[in-house]
Design goal:
Elements lengths: L2 H6 L6 E5 L4 E4 L2 H12 L6 H28 L1
Length: 76
């Protein structure tokens, strides 16, 4: 499976930067990739789906809290 398909299915963290008629430009967080590379270089066996699930669960909570704070600031 390609990285683009995994990102489209939500199996990898990504943000769509631009949508064209044929292609989408996606950005995968550098910190996510840095964590995978560091663990792989340290000799750990890297399971991409496991890392993505952990990353998404950690950052979904952070983004929901940040969006609540933004909404509160907009209301005041």
């Amino acid at each position: 499976m390609t990285v683009a398909r995994m990102a489209d299915e939500g199996r990898l963290p990504s943000v769509v930067i631009r949508r064209g008629q044929v292609q989408k430009i996606r950005r995968i967080p550098r910190a996510f990739l840095d964590r995978i590379v560091a663990d792989a270089c340290a000799g750990a066996e890297v399971d991409l789906e496991e890392y993505a699930a952990v990353w998404l669960s950690e950052h979904t909570q952070d983004s929901s809290q940040a969006s609540k704070a933004t909404r509160r600031a907009e209301l005041t």
